[in-house]
Design brief:
Blueprint (H helix, E strand, L loop, with lengths): L1 H6 L1 H23 L4 H32 L3 H24 L6 H29 L2 E2 L2 H19 L15 H25 L22 H33 L4 H24 L3 H30 L9 H17 L4 E2 L1 H18 L2
Antiparallel strand pairs: 1-2
Amino acid sequence: MKQFLKQEYVLLISFITVVLFKSYGDSVIQSDLLSAHGLLFTAVLFVVAMAAIFAVVRHSDALAIKLGDPYGTLILTLSVILLEVVMISSVMLTGDANPVLARDTMFAVIMTVLNGLVGITLLIGGMKYHTQKYNIDGLKSYLVAIVPLAMLCLVLPNFTSSSDSGIMSQSLTITLVMASLVLYSVFLFLQTKSHTHFFMDDDHQDEHDYHGPLNSNVFHSILLVSYLTVVILMAKSLAIPIDQTIVTVGAPPALGGLVVAVLILAPEAVGAAKAALNNQLQRAMNLFFGSVLATIALTVPAVLLIANMIQEPILLGLEPAEMILLVTTLLMTAVSFSSGRTHSLNGAAHLILFIAYIILMFE
């Protein structure tokens, strides 16, 4: 037991933090965020939440080593995206009506990953190795699923009918749910059964970093679920300082989706950056593209079903300028990953699009 507590002290601290905030901390940061107590509580909450999120990655990597790829990156991707889906769903079920929450968060993930994180990764990898290779079949497989889902879920709703209250038509809802689930299921079959070699780099086999002793699959699975649980329980507390800060400084509401996306994606960003510096670009891109695909394919069915159940309107269609950014991002991504090689210019171009997204958000 002593050895376990020494290795997993973050879990104990996380549970104590959850109890503290549910009984006392939430009311402090909600009523007096800018006080000394409020700022201290907020800082503690963010530090503990990030520690728990990185623990999720640690146990995901342990399972990845034992199970092998492509299951390794898939476990990490699904764990991280599960956090996003649950956070959005919990806000929809318990918070004030926010019809654009899911749309803003999904768009933030797409822009942050395909432009911000991919841009940084390609830039630093290109500066160190000049040219990096990846398995073109795997990246094309991701794009074959990402492009239609992104257009169907984030663009098509702008051109279809809805009820007077803003609720999407039943036929469109069914179409988007079925398209997301079917396409993602086929992709998972491709990734894990029929074409696993598409997602591996023959020259640089994926290696997972795990700092700590390897235990049984059951051990790491239980701890993975435990850490996911405490992060989910802290999600509502995390939303309080984010929302209040945005209101206080007069920032656009979409900034909240970006902050949530950055927090959730931080562990993947660190893992992908390490992979790129080790010349394992395929692993980095598996993490990034897998996150984008899972974000759309899992978030859309969840929020549509919840919105239909509680009869609340939900808006998935992007604004005109955002649609242009989305289409440009998808085109740029298709061009960048069309040859099997990347360099620093690709990274710089993606970062320019990410900067444009940030600037547009504040207009």
